[in-house]
Amino acid sequence: MLWYLGLPEDFLKNPEVVSDGCFRIIEIEGEEQWLCAEADSNEQVLSVLQRNAIKQGSSGPVAFPLFPSKGLRLKKKIEGWLDDFQRLPYISPYEDFSSLDPNSDVSEKRVAGVLHELLSIFVDNSAERRRLLCLRKHLGLPQKFHKVFERHPHVFYLLLKSKTCFVVLKEAYNGLSSSAIERHPMLEVRKKYVELMNKSEAILRSRRSRKPLVEIEDESYC
C-alpha cells in the first residue's frame, strides 16, 4: 500500500518524519505493524464522508455523494432501495462494528464507507481491485466485499486498463468544490515524472531515427 499512500519505501524506519502527527505505527500480535490514525485526546477521527456532511451542514444520516454515469439507469425498485440505503445509519471506518449483523444493509453501508475512505486517502483515489483483496481481514470486510463496487456504480467506477481492473472513486473526479477530498500533493509529482518519461522516450526515438525532435503535448495523469 506504500505506493497508493504516497509513502517512501523506508517509511517504517522513520514514520514520524512523514506522518506529521497524522498517524503512527502500532504493534499487533504476531509482530505485525499497523497504521493507526492519530488524533488529540479530545478530538474524534472523522471520515471524509463525515467531514463532508459537516461542511454541508447536513443534520440527517451521512449519505454517499452519488455520481451516475451517462447512460446508466437504475430500475425503480433499485432506486427505492438506494434511497433507503442512504438513510441508514452510517458506521465510520474508525468506529467499532463488532455488534453489526454482517448480512444487514447497515453492514453493507459500513463496507462501502470503509472502501470510500480507503480510496479517498490514496494518491490518485484509485487502486487495482485485486490488491485490495489482501486488506479484507485487516479492515474487517466480508468474504465477497468486492461486490460492493458493482452494487454501487454511482459511488465507484470499475476501469479496465491493460487487462487489469481498477477501482476509481467517482467523488474525487467530479470537479465540485463541495467535496471534502483534497488533491494529494504527490499526484503533481507523479504527473511531472510521467511527462518526463514521455519526453525521454520521444528523445530516444528521435535519436534512433535521426529525425528532429517534435515536442509532444503534456498528457494529463489520472
Automatic annotation (TrEMBL):
UniProt cross-references to InterPro entries, sorted A to Z: PORR_domain, PORR_fam
Pfam families assigned: PORR (PF11955)
Source superkingdom: Eukaryota
Molecular function terms, GO-annotated: RNA binding
Domain spans labelled PORR: 2-201
Protein name: PORR domain-containing protein
